[in-house]
TrEMBL record:
Name recorded for this polypeptide: Serine acetyltransferase
Presence of keyword Electron transport: no
Pfam families from the UniProt entry: SATase_N
A Gene Ontology molecular function term of the record: acyltransferase activity
Length: 270
């Protein structure tokens, strides 16, 4: 490329990138804020004075405000109101996460304590990030909730869209490969195992405002690698969906759904 064409191209790239940077929060700052908030809610280090908690929370509020101011136009969104409402909901988020952790401990025979669940279970971490990102999404904060959810996705292998509706308590076991779409609705006491997908039966931009993902009612267990698709698909309460099931239609409450493939085992003679 000639020198003037190179300079024109560089200028063009700069202007595009500048506009994108100005409309996007820093990924690093977002993750740092999230990590500090998680540490405030579930600290690994001993905090021997109440004032330390107060200082941590104040810093976290300031950091979130700075993140929002870095890419949002205050004339289009009331940042002070977002900050107030988010932190006003923090106690509820915390109590819900304690219920999630307790559910995991009660259901998983390998769990030795609720604290172990909180500090080491990827399913719990993914749920925690979801509940934080979901609240920001409810407050009409753009982009930041997706950055948080994609951070959790990369760290845990669990992909939960921040707009999904997930009641309390919720139990993810193992976690890797789970996908929960944006318009999914999940009730209370639902257990989901690794590799489960709650997805859309078709992907089209014109369906962006349509419910595309399944509804899972209370007290449902969905075992590993099952795929459930469609916005009109409802898994009735107290049902069990076996492993590797593929569903595109609703099932009644108290249903048990399993594959009919037969496993053949032959023992060779020595």
């Amino acid at each position: 490329m000639e020198a003037n064409r190179v300079n024109t191209f560089i200028e063009h790239l700069y202007q595009i990138h500048k506009a994108e940077w100005e409309a996007t929060p820093s990924f690093r700052q977002a993750v740092d804020w999230l990590s500090d908030l998680f540490e405030f809610l579930f600290p690994n280090n001993r905090l021997n004075r109440q004032s330390i908690y107060e200082g941590q929370l104040k810093k976290n509020q300031i950091d979130l405000e700075n993140i929002l101011l870095s890419y949002l136009d205050p004339s289009t969104i009331n940042i002070d109101e977002v900050i107030y409402k988010f932190y006003a909901s923090l106690e509820e988020i915390y109590q819900n996460l304690r219920l999630d952790a307790t559910k995991i401990y009660e259901e998983d025979p390998a769990a030795v304590s609720i604290h172990e669940v909180i500090v080491s279970y990827p399913g719990f971490y993914a749920t925690a990030v979801y509940r934080i990102a979901n609240k920001l999404s409810q407050l009409s904060v753009p982009i930041l909730p997706r950055i948080l959810s994609e951070h959790a996705h990369g760290k845990t292998g669990v992909d939960i869209h921040p707009n999904a509706q997930i009641d309390v308590p919720f139990f993810i076991d193992h976690g890797t490969g789970i996908v929960i779409g944006a318009t999914s609705i999940i009730g209370k006491n639902v257990c989901i195992y690794q590799g489960v997908t709650l997805g859309a039966s078709q992907v089209s931009k014109v369906l962006s405002d349509v419910k595309r993902h399944p509804t899972v009612e209370d007290n449902v267990i969905i075992y590993a690698r099952s795929t459930i698709l469609g916005g009109k698909t409802v898994i009735g309460h107290d049902s069990v969906i076996g492993g590797s099931v593929f569903l595109t239609k609703s099932v009644a409450p108290y249903s048990s759904v399993f594959n009919t493939h037969q496993l053949r085992i032959e023992v060779r003679e020595e």
